[in-house]
Amino acid sequence: MPAVPRYFAILICLLTLGLAQAAPRTDIRVELQLEPPHLDPTQTASATTAEVTYANLFQGLTRVDQQGEVIPALARTWRVSEDGLSYDFTLARGARFHDGSPFNAGVAKFALDRLRDPAGGNPQRQLYTAIDEVRTHGEHGLELRLSRPDSLLPFKLALSAAVMVHPDSADNNRHHPVGTGPYRFAGRMPGQGVRLEYFPGYWGAEPHIKQAHFTFTANLVELEASLSEGLIDHYSDASTLVSQAQLRHRSDYLIRDGIGEGEILLAINNARPPFDQLPVRRALAHAIDKQAIRKQLYQFNTPPLIGSHFSPHHPAYVELSDYYPHDREKARRLLQEAGVAPGTAMTITIPPTLYAAELALRIAGELEAIGLELQVERISWPQWLEQVFTNKDYELTIVSHIEPMDIDIYARDHYYFNYDNGAFKALWHRIEQTTAQAERYRLLADAQRMLAEDAVNVFLLMKPQLSIHKSNLRGTWVNTPVPAVVLEEMHWE
Protein backbone atom coordinates (compact mmCIF):
# COMPACT_ATOMS: atom_id res chain seq x y z
CA MET A 1 0.00 0.00 0.00
CA PRO A 2 1.53 3.35 -1.01
CA ALA A 3 2.35 5.86 1.71
CA VAL A 4 -0.09 8.74 2.27
CA PRO A 5 1.48 12.07 1.27
CA ARG A 6 2.29 14.30 4.23
CA TYR A 7 -0.06 17.13 3.24
CA PHE A 8 -2.95 14.62 2.87
CA ALA A 9 -2.24 13.28 6.36
CA ILE A 10 -2.30 16.83 7.75
CA LEU A 11 -5.54 17.58 5.91
CA ILE A 12 -7.17 14.42 7.29
CA CYS A 13 -6.11 15.37 10.84
CA LEU A 14 -7.52 18.88 10.45
CA LEU A 15 -10.81 17.56 9.06
CA THR A 16 -11.08 15.03 11.88
CA LEU A 17 -10.36 17.72 14.47
CA GLY A 18 -12.93 20.04 12.90
CA LEU A 19 -15.62 17.37 12.94
CA ALA A 20 -14.83 16.58 16.56
CA GLN A 21 -15.07 20.22 17.50
CA ALA A 22 -18.34 20.63 15.61
CA ALA A 23 -20.01 17.64 17.26
CA PRO A 24 -22.63 18.92 19.72
CA ARG A 25 -22.24 18.13 23.39
CA THR A 26 -24.34 15.41 24.96
CA ASP A 27 -23.76 16.37 28.61
CA ILE A 28 -25.06 19.19 30.78
CA ARG A 29 -24.48 20.71 34.20
CA VAL A 30 -27.61 22.08 35.84
CA GLU A 31 -27.37 24.22 38.96
CA LEU A 32 -30.11 24.25 41.61
CA GLN A 33 -29.79 26.22 44.80
CA LEU A 34 -31.34 23.82 47.31
CA GLU A 35 -30.06 20.26 47.67
CA PRO A 36 -32.97 17.79 47.76
CA PRO A 37 -33.40 15.83 51.01
CA HIS A 38 -33.76 12.66 48.89
CA LEU A 39 -34.91 11.67 45.40
CA ASP A 40 -38.39 10.21 45.92
CA PRO A 41 -40.95 12.86 44.88
CA THR A 42 -43.78 10.80 46.37
CA GLN A 43 -42.27 11.19 49.84
CA THR A 44 -41.38 14.88 50.09
CA ALA A 45 -42.77 18.33 49.40
CA SER A 46 -39.31 19.51 48.28
CA ALA A 47 -39.55 21.23 44.90
CA THR A 48 -35.87 20.49 44.24
CA THR A 49 -36.57 16.77 44.28
CA ALA A 50 -39.22 17.37 41.63
CA GLU A 51 -36.88 19.55 39.56
CA VAL A 52 -34.30 16.76 39.38
CA THR A 53 -36.68 13.84 38.82
CA TYR A 54 -39.80 15.13 37.01
CA ALA A 55 -40.03 13.68 33.47
CA ASN A 56 -36.36 12.68 33.82
CA LEU A 57 -36.27 9.76 36.25
CA PHE A 58 -39.97 9.40 36.96
CA GLN A 59 -43.12 9.71 34.88
CA GLY A 60 -46.79 9.91 35.78
CA LEU A 61 -49.89 8.86 33.90
CA THR A 62 -50.11 12.43 32.59
CA ARG A 63 -47.64 15.29 32.34
CA VAL A 64 -47.66 19.09 32.30
CA ASP A 65 -45.86 20.77 29.40
CA GLN A 66 -44.17 24.18 29.30
CA GLN A 67 -47.45 25.89 28.43
CA GLY A 68 -49.12 24.37 31.49
CA GLU A 69 -51.25 21.98 29.44
CA VAL A 70 -51.91 18.41 30.56
CA ILE A 71 -50.53 15.96 27.99
CA PRO A 72 -50.20 12.14 27.82
CA ALA A 73 -47.33 10.38 29.53
CA LEU A 74 -47.58 6.74 30.64
CA ALA A 75 -51.30 7.01 29.95
CA ARG A 76 -51.61 7.51 26.20
CA THR A 77 -55.34 8.28 26.19
CA TRP A 78 -58.14 8.69 28.74
CA ARG A 79 -61.89 9.12 28.83
CA VAL A 80 -64.15 10.47 31.58
CA SER A 81 -67.70 9.30 32.11
CA GLU A 82 -70.63 11.71 31.70
CA ASP A 83 -71.25 11.80 35.46
CA GLY A 84 -67.55 12.53 36.11
CA LEU A 85 -67.21 9.52 38.41
CA SER A 86 -65.03 7.29 36.24
CA TYR A 87 -61.78 7.79 34.32
CA ASP A 88 -60.58 5.11 31.89
CA PHE A 89 -56.91 5.19 30.88
CA THR A 90 -55.10 3.30 28.13
CA LEU A 91 -51.50 2.78 29.20
CA ALA A 92 -48.29 2.83 27.17
CA ARG A 93 -47.06 -0.46 25.78
CA GLY A 94 -43.45 -1.51 26.15
CA ALA A 95 -42.57 0.87 28.98
CA ARG A 96 -40.05 -0.52 31.46
CA PHE A 97 -38.47 0.61 34.68
CA HIS A 98 -34.72 1.18 34.82
CA ASP A 99 -34.20 -2.21 36.49
CA GLY A 100 -36.02 -3.95 33.62
CA SER A 101 -39.34 -4.44 35.39
CA PRO A 102 -42.33 -3.89 33.09
CA PHE A 103 -44.80 -1.09 33.61
CA ASN A 104 -48.43 -2.22 33.37
CA ALA A 105 -51.87 -1.65 34.87
CA GLY A 106 -51.01 -3.68 37.97
CA VAL A 107 -48.01 -1.46 38.69
CA ALA A 108 -50.11 1.66 38.12
CA LYS A 109 -52.71 0.37 40.58
CA PHE A 110 -49.99 -0.26 43.16
CA ALA A 111 -48.57 3.25 42.72
CA LEU A 112 -51.98 4.94 43.05
CA ASP A 113 -53.06 2.79 46.01
CA ARG A 114 -49.76 3.65 47.71
CA LEU A 115 -50.35 7.33 46.94
CA ARG A 116 -53.79 7.22 48.58
CA ASP A 117 -52.72 5.19 51.62
CA PRO A 118 -52.64 7.38 54.78
CA ALA A 119 -49.64 5.35 55.92
CA GLY A 120 -47.85 5.80 52.61
CA GLY A 121 -46.18 9.07 53.55
CA ASN A 122 -47.14 11.09 50.47
CA PRO A 123 -47.42 14.76 51.57
CA GLN A 124 -49.85 15.51 48.70
CA ARG A 125 -52.19 12.58 49.45
CA GLN A 126 -55.18 14.84 50.10
CA LEU A 127 -55.20 15.92 46.46
CA TYR A 128 -56.35 12.43 45.49
CA THR A 129 -59.06 11.69 48.06
CA ALA A 130 -61.75 11.68 45.36
CA ILE A 131 -60.30 8.39 44.03
CA ASP A 132 -62.43 5.67 45.60
CA GLU A 133 -61.13 2.61 43.78
CA VAL A 134 -58.48 1.67 41.21
CA ARG A 135 -59.32 -1.18 38.83
CA THR A 136 -57.24 -2.90 36.17
CA HIS A 137 -58.54 -4.10 32.80
CA GLY A 138 -55.88 -6.35 31.35
CA GLU A 139 -52.26 -5.23 31.07
CA HIS A 140 -52.93 -1.79 29.65
CA GLY A 141 -56.35 -0.69 30.90
CA LEU A 142 -56.80 1.28 34.13
CA GLU A 143 -60.02 2.62 35.63
CA LEU A 144 -60.28 5.15 38.43
CA ARG A 145 -63.66 5.23 40.14
CA LEU A 146 -64.37 8.41 42.11
CA SER A 147 -66.53 9.12 45.14
CA ARG A 148 -67.24 12.59 43.74
CA PRO A 149 -66.43 14.40 40.50
CA ASP A 150 -62.97 15.96 40.37
CA SER A 151 -62.51 18.06 37.25
CA LEU A 152 -58.84 18.69 38.15
CA LEU A 153 -57.86 15.01 38.37
CA PRO A 154 -55.89 14.75 35.07
CA PHE A 155 -53.86 17.77 36.21
CA LYS A 156 -53.31 16.32 39.69
CA LEU A 157 -52.11 13.04 38.16
CA ALA A 158 -49.50 15.06 36.25
CA LEU A 159 -47.83 16.30 39.46
CA SER A 160 -44.61 14.79 40.75
CA ALA A 161 -46.42 13.37 43.79
CA ALA A 162 -48.30 10.97 41.48
CA VAL A 163 -45.42 9.47 39.48
CA MET A 164 -45.44 5.74 38.83
CA VAL A 165 -43.28 3.56 41.08
CA HIS A 166 -42.75 -0.21 41.07
CA PRO A 167 -43.52 -2.36 44.15
CA ASP A 168 -40.07 -3.96 44.00
CA SER A 169 -38.14 -0.67 44.11
CA ALA A 170 -40.52 1.87 45.70
CA ASP A 171 -39.11 1.54 49.22
CA ASN A 172 -35.59 2.40 48.04
CA ASN A 173 -36.41 5.33 45.75
CA ARG A 174 -35.19 7.88 48.28
CA HIS A 175 -31.59 6.80 47.75
CA HIS A 176 -31.65 4.86 44.47
CA PRO A 177 -34.64 6.01 42.40
CA VAL A 178 -35.96 3.64 39.74
CA GLY A 179 -38.50 5.05 37.30
CA THR A 180 -39.61 4.74 33.68
CA GLY A 181 -38.15 8.02 32.43
CA PRO A 182 -35.47 8.63 29.79
CA TYR A 183 -32.74 8.92 32.44
CA ARG A 184 -31.63 6.55 35.14
CA PHE A 185 -29.88 7.31 38.39
CA ALA A 186 -26.08 7.28 37.99
CA GLY A 187 -24.97 8.31 41.47
CA ARG A 188 -25.02 10.84 44.27
CA MET A 189 -22.17 11.85 46.53
CA PRO A 190 -22.41 14.34 49.43
CA GLY A 191 -21.40 17.76 48.18
CA GLN A 192 -20.99 16.53 44.58
CA GLY A 193 -24.57 16.59 43.35
CA VAL A 194 -26.70 14.07 41.48
CA ARG A 195 -25.76 12.38 38.21
CA LEU A 196 -28.20 11.00 35.66
CA GLU A 197 -27.50 9.07 32.46
CA TYR A 198 -29.57 8.05 29.45
CA PHE A 199 -31.48 4.80 29.91
CA PRO A 200 -30.99 2.74 26.69
CA GLY A 201 -34.19 0.79 27.36
CA TYR A 202 -36.36 3.91 27.40
CA TRP A 203 -39.74 3.35 25.75
CA GLY A 204 -39.92 6.84 24.20
CA ALA A 205 -37.78 8.84 21.78
CA GLU A 206 -34.05 8.96 22.48
CA PRO A 207 -32.99 12.35 23.90
CA HIS A 208 -30.00 14.39 22.73
CA ILE A 209 -28.65 14.90 26.26
CA LYS A 210 -27.08 11.67 27.50
CA GLN A 211 -25.50 12.69 30.82
CA ALA A 212 -26.67 15.30 33.34
CA HIS A 213 -24.97 16.57 36.48
CA PHE A 214 -27.18 18.43 38.97
CA THR A 215 -25.20 20.52 41.44
CA PHE A 216 -26.48 22.49 44.45
CA THR A 217 -24.84 25.69 45.68
CA ALA A 218 -26.44 27.61 48.53
CA ASN A 219 -23.46 29.96 48.88
CA LEU A 220 -24.00 33.02 46.68
CA VAL A 221 -20.28 33.79 46.30
CA GLU A 222 -19.52 30.26 45.08
CA LEU A 223 -22.50 30.34 42.74
CA GLU A 224 -21.48 33.67 41.21
CA ALA A 225 -17.92 32.36 40.76
CA SER A 226 -19.11 29.22 38.95
CA LEU A 227 -21.21 31.31 36.58
CA SER A 228 -18.41 33.79 35.91
CA GLU A 229 -16.11 30.87 35.01
CA GLY A 230 -18.74 29.44 32.68
CA LEU A 231 -18.96 26.17 34.61
CA ILE A 232 -22.78 26.11 34.80
CA ASP A 233 -24.84 25.34 31.70
CA HIS A 234 -28.29 26.08 33.09
CA TYR A 235 -29.54 27.86 36.24
CA SER A 236 -33.24 28.61 36.60
CA ASP A 237 -33.20 31.16 39.45
CA ALA A 238 -31.04 34.11 38.37
CA SER A 239 -33.35 36.86 39.64
CA THR A 240 -31.31 37.73 42.75
CA LEU A 241 -27.80 37.39 41.27
CA VAL A 242 -25.51 40.33 41.99
CA SER A 243 -23.61 39.70 38.72
CA GLN A 244 -26.76 39.72 36.61
CA ALA A 245 -25.84 42.95 34.81
CA GLN A 246 -22.42 41.59 33.81
CA LEU A 247 -23.85 38.23 32.74
CA ARG A 248 -26.35 39.95 30.45
CA HIS A 249 -23.46 41.33 28.38
CA ARG A 250 -21.72 37.98 27.91
CA SER A 251 -22.08 36.26 24.57
CA ASP A 252 -21.81 32.76 26.04
CA TYR A 253 -24.84 33.17 28.35
CA LEU A 254 -28.48 34.03 27.71
CA ILE A 255 -30.82 35.35 30.43
CA ARG A 256 -34.53 34.74 29.85
CA ASP A 257 -37.44 36.26 31.75
CA GLY A 258 -40.24 33.72 32.02
CA ILE A 259 -43.34 33.04 34.06
CA GLY A 260 -43.35 30.87 37.16
CA GLU A 261 -46.00 29.74 39.62
CA GLY A 262 -44.22 30.57 42.85
CA GLU A 263 -46.16 32.61 45.40
CA ILE A 264 -43.70 34.06 47.93
CA LEU A 265 -45.24 34.25 51.38
CA LEU A 266 -44.46 35.43 54.84
CA ALA A 267 -46.12 32.29 56.14
CA ILE A 268 -47.74 32.43 59.57
CA ASN A 269 -48.40 29.69 62.11
CA ASN A 270 -52.08 30.49 62.64
CA ALA A 271 -52.24 28.29 65.77
CA ARG A 272 -49.31 29.90 67.59
CA PRO A 273 -50.17 32.87 69.88
CA PRO A 274 -50.37 35.74 69.18
CA PHE A 275 -50.81 34.83 65.49
CA ASP A 276 -54.01 32.96 66.28
CA GLN A 277 -55.61 36.41 66.51
CA LEU A 278 -56.85 37.93 63.25
CA PRO A 279 -55.86 41.53 64.19
CA VAL A 280 -52.24 40.41 64.66
CA ARG A 281 -52.06 38.77 61.23
CA ARG A 282 -53.65 41.86 59.69
CA ALA A 283 -51.13 44.05 61.50
CA LEU A 284 -48.29 42.12 59.86
CA ALA A 285 -49.92 42.57 56.45
CA HIS A 286 -50.28 46.35 56.95
CA ALA A 287 -46.70 46.66 58.25
CA ILE A 288 -44.97 45.36 55.14
CA ASP A 289 -44.38 47.67 52.18
CA LYS A 290 -44.52 45.15 49.32
CA GLN A 291 -43.84 47.79 46.67
CA ALA A 292 -40.59 48.86 48.35
CA ILE A 293 -39.48 45.29 48.93
CA ARG A 294 -40.02 44.41 45.28
CA LYS A 295 -38.09 47.47 44.12
CA GLN A 296 -35.17 46.75 46.45
CA LEU A 297 -34.96 43.02 45.82
CA TYR A 298 -35.57 42.82 42.08
CA GLN A 299 -33.77 45.49 40.10
CA PHE A 300 -34.04 43.96 36.63
CA ASN A 301 -37.70 42.89 36.54
CA THR A 302 -41.01 43.64 38.20
CA PRO A 303 -42.74 40.48 39.42
CA PRO A 304 -46.48 40.84 40.19
CA LEU A 305 -47.53 41.59 43.77
CA ILE A 306 -50.24 39.33 45.19
CA GLY A 307 -52.85 39.51 47.93
CA SER A 308 -53.89 35.87 48.09
CA HIS A 309 -52.49 32.45 47.26
CA PHE A 310 -53.22 32.51 43.55
CA SER A 311 -51.24 33.13 40.40
CA PRO A 312 -52.02 36.27 38.34
CA HIS A 313 -51.51 34.13 35.24
CA HIS A 314 -54.71 32.18 35.92
CA PRO A 315 -57.94 33.53 34.35
CA ALA A 316 -59.74 33.28 37.71
CA TYR A 317 -57.24 35.60 39.43
CA VAL A 318 -58.61 38.47 41.55
CA GLU A 319 -56.44 41.55 42.15
CA LEU A 320 -56.04 41.78 45.95
CA SER A 321 -52.43 42.93 46.27
CA ASP A 322 -53.48 46.17 48.01
CA TYR A 323 -56.06 44.54 50.28
CA TYR A 324 -53.91 45.61 53.25
CA PRO A 325 -52.23 48.87 52.18
CA HIS A 326 -48.95 49.76 53.83
CA ASP A 327 -49.93 51.58 57.04
CA ARG A 328 -47.62 51.36 60.05
CA GLU A 329 -49.91 53.39 62.29
CA LYS A 330 -52.83 51.06 61.64
CA ALA A 331 -50.56 48.07 62.22
CA ARG A 332 -49.57 49.45 65.64
CA ARG A 333 -53.23 50.03 66.57
CA LEU A 334 -54.16 46.46 65.61
CA LEU A 335 -51.33 45.07 67.74
CA GLN A 336 -52.45 47.22 70.67
CA GLU A 337 -56.05 46.03 70.29
CA ALA A 338 -54.82 42.43 70.35
CA GLY A 339 -52.80 43.04 73.51
CA VAL A 340 -49.40 42.62 71.83
CA ALA A 341 -47.03 44.91 73.71
CA PRO A 342 -44.21 46.88 72.04
CA GLY A 343 -40.98 44.89 72.14
CA THR A 344 -42.72 41.52 71.76
CA ALA A 345 -40.18 39.05 70.36
CA MET A 346 -40.89 36.99 67.24
CA THR A 347 -38.78 34.61 65.15
CA ILE A 348 -38.65 34.23 61.36
CA THR A 349 -37.30 30.77 60.52
CA ILE A 350 -35.99 30.68 56.96
CA PRO A 351 -34.57 28.09 54.55
CA PRO A 352 -31.20 28.77 52.85
CA THR A 353 -32.58 30.35 49.69
CA LEU A 354 -31.24 33.66 48.41
CA TYR A 355 -34.67 35.29 48.20
CA ALA A 356 -35.58 34.18 51.74
CA ALA A 357 -32.35 35.61 53.18
CA GLU A 358 -32.88 38.96 51.44
CA LEU A 359 -36.56 39.17 52.34
CA ALA A 360 -36.03 38.17 55.97
CA LEU A 361 -33.79 41.16 56.64
CA ARG A 362 -36.16 43.61 54.99
CA ILE A 363 -39.28 42.16 56.62
CA ALA A 364 -37.56 42.15 60.01
CA GLY A 365 -36.90 45.87 59.55
CA GLU A 366 -40.54 46.49 58.61
CA LEU A 367 -41.86 44.66 61.66
CA GLU A 368 -39.37 46.30 64.00
CA ALA A 369 -40.69 49.66 62.71
CA ILE A 370 -44.07 48.83 64.29
CA GLY A 371 -42.49 47.92 67.62
CA LEU A 372 -41.77 44.20 67.37
CA GLU A 373 -38.44 42.52 68.06
CA LEU A 374 -37.47 40.12 65.27
CA GLN A 375 -34.93 37.32 65.29
CA VAL A 376 -33.97 35.62 62.02
CA GLU A 377 -33.30 31.89 62.40
CA ARG A 378 -31.46 30.34 59.43
CA ILE A 379 -31.70 26.58 59.00
CA SER A 380 -30.88 24.04 56.29
CA TRP A 381 -33.44 22.85 53.77
CA PRO A 382 -33.85 19.38 55.36
CA GLN A 383 -34.22 21.09 58.75
CA TRP A 384 -36.88 23.43 57.33
CA LEU A 385 -38.83 20.52 55.88
CA GLU A 386 -38.76 18.69 59.21
CA GLN A 387 -39.10 21.56 61.68
CA VAL A 388 -41.45 23.91 59.81
CA PHE A 389 -43.29 21.90 57.19
CA THR A 390 -43.68 18.60 59.05
CA ASN A 391 -43.57 19.47 62.76
CA LYS A 392 -45.06 23.00 62.39
CA ASP A 393 -42.55 24.26 64.97
CA TYR A 394 -42.22 27.90 63.94
CA GLU A 395 -43.83 31.34 64.20
CA LEU A 396 -43.07 32.96 60.85
CA THR A 397 -41.23 31.72 57.79
CA ILE A 398 -40.53 32.83 54.22
CA VAL A 399 -41.02 30.41 51.37
CA SER A 400 -42.15 30.22 47.77
CA HIS A 401 -44.94 27.76 46.96
CA ILE A 402 -44.22 26.85 43.35
CA GLU A 403 -46.78 24.09 42.74
CA PRO A 404 -49.47 25.36 40.33
CA MET A 405 -53.07 25.74 41.46
CA ASP A 406 -52.22 24.83 45.05
CA ILE A 407 -54.80 27.01 46.80
CA ASP A 408 -56.29 23.69 47.99
CA ILE A 409 -53.60 23.50 50.70
CA TYR A 410 -55.75 25.84 52.81
CA ALA A 411 -58.45 23.17 52.88
CA ARG A 412 -56.11 20.47 54.17
CA ASP A 413 -56.16 19.25 57.74
CA HIS A 414 -52.94 19.79 59.70
CA TYR A 415 -51.13 21.71 56.96
CA TYR A 416 -48.18 23.70 58.29
CA PHE A 417 -50.05 27.05 58.29
CA ASN A 418 -52.45 25.54 60.88
CA TYR A 419 -55.33 27.31 59.15
CA ASP A 420 -58.60 25.59 60.06
CA ASN A 421 -61.65 27.14 58.43
CA GLY A 422 -64.68 24.94 57.82
CA ALA A 423 -66.18 27.46 55.41
CA PHE A 424 -63.08 27.38 53.22
CA LYS A 425 -63.04 23.57 53.22
CA ALA A 426 -66.68 23.51 52.13
CA LEU A 427 -65.94 26.05 49.40
CA TRP A 428 -63.03 23.99 48.07
CA HIS A 429 -65.22 20.89 48.07
CA ARG A 430 -67.66 22.77 45.79
CA ILE A 431 -64.81 23.91 43.54
CA GLU A 432 -63.60 20.35 43.00
CA GLN A 433 -67.06 19.17 42.02
CA THR A 434 -67.89 22.08 39.72
CA THR A 435 -67.32 21.17 36.07
CA ALA A 436 -68.72 24.40 34.53
CA GLN A 437 -65.70 26.64 34.02
CA ALA A 438 -67.42 30.00 34.64
CA GLU A 439 -68.91 28.82 37.93
CA ARG A 440 -65.63 27.23 39.02
CA TYR A 441 -63.79 30.50 38.34
CA ARG A 442 -66.37 32.41 40.38
CA LEU A 443 -65.85 30.06 43.31
CA LEU A 444 -62.06 30.33 42.97
CA ALA A 445 -62.45 34.11 43.23
CA ASP A 446 -64.44 33.65 46.45
CA ALA A 447 -61.65 31.42 47.80
CA GLN A 448 -59.03 34.09 47.12
CA ARG A 449 -61.08 36.75 48.89
CA MET A 450 -61.64 34.50 51.91
CA LEU A 451 -57.91 33.91 52.36
CA ALA A 452 -57.22 37.64 52.05
CA GLU A 453 -59.94 38.51 54.56
CA ASP A 454 -58.56 35.99 57.05
CA ALA A 455 -54.98 37.25 56.49
CA VAL A 456 -53.85 33.65 56.69
CA ASN A 457 -50.39 34.66 55.49
CA VAL A 458 -48.79 37.86 54.25
CA PHE A 459 -49.01 37.28 50.50
CA LEU A 460 -46.06 39.14 48.98
CA LEU A 461 -45.30 38.60 45.29
CA MET A 462 -44.76 36.06 42.55
CA LYS A 463 -41.25 34.67 42.42
CA PRO A 464 -39.57 35.77 39.17
CA GLN A 465 -38.67 32.99 36.76
CA LEU A 466 -35.43 34.45 35.48
CA SER A 467 -33.25 31.69 34.06
CA ILE A 468 -29.74 31.75 32.63
CA HIS A 469 -28.22 29.19 30.31
CA LYS A 470 -25.47 28.80 27.75
CA SER A 471 -26.39 30.63 24.56
CA ASN A 472 -26.10 27.50 22.41
CA LEU A 473 -28.33 25.37 24.64
CA ARG A 474 -31.80 24.87 23.21
CA GLY A 475 -35.04 23.45 24.60
CA THR A 476 -34.91 24.89 28.13
CA TRP A 477 -38.21 25.93 29.66
CA VAL A 478 -38.73 29.69 29.78
CA ASN A 479 -41.88 29.29 31.88
CA THR A 480 -42.21 26.80 34.73
CA PRO A 481 -45.83 25.78 35.31
CA VAL A 482 -44.48 22.95 37.49
CA PRO A 483 -41.10 22.49 39.22
CA ALA A 484 -39.10 20.75 36.49
CA VAL A 485 -35.88 20.74 34.50
CA VAL A 486 -36.94 18.57 31.55
CA LEU A 487 -33.73 17.23 30.05
CA GLU A 488 -35.20 15.27 27.16
CA GLU A 489 -36.35 18.51 25.49
CA MET A 490 -32.85 20.04 25.52
CA HIS A 491 -30.07 19.88 22.95
CA TRP A 492 -26.84 21.67 22.08
CA GLU A 493 -26.25 23.49 18.82
What features would you describe in this structure?
- With 493 residues, the protein is of the alpha+beta class.
- It is built from 13 helices and 20 strands.
- The protein has helices at 6-22, 47-53, 105-116, 153-156, 220-228, 244-248, 278-287, 290-297, 328-337, 354-368, 381-390, 422-433, 437-454; strands spanning 27-32, 62-64, 70-72, 75-80, 86-91, 131-137, 141-146, 183-189, 193-198, 211-216, 234-235, 253-258, 263-268, 345-350, 373-378, 396-401, 458-462, 465-470, 473-474, 491-492.
- The strands form 5 sheets. Strands 8-9-10-1-11-18-12 form a 7-stranded mixed beta sheet, covered by helices on one side.
- Residues 7-20 have low confidence and may be disordered.
Topology:
Elements: H1 6-22, E1 27-32, H2 47-53, E2 62-64, E3 70-72, E4 75-80, E5 86-91, H3 105-116, E6 131-137, E7 141-146, H4 153-156, E8 183-189, E9 193-198, E10 211-216, H5 220-228, E11 234-235, H6 244-248, E12 253-258, E13 263-268, H7 278-287, H8 290-297, H9 328-337, E14 345-350, H10 354-368, E15 373-378, H11 381-390, E16 396-401, H12 422-433, H13 437-454, E17 458-462, E18 465-470, E19 473-474, E20 491-492
Parallel strand pairs: 1-10, 1-11, 14-15, 14-16
Antiparallel strand pairs: 2-3, 4-5, 5-7, 6-7, 8-9, 9-10, 11-18, 12-18, 13-16, 13-17, 19-20
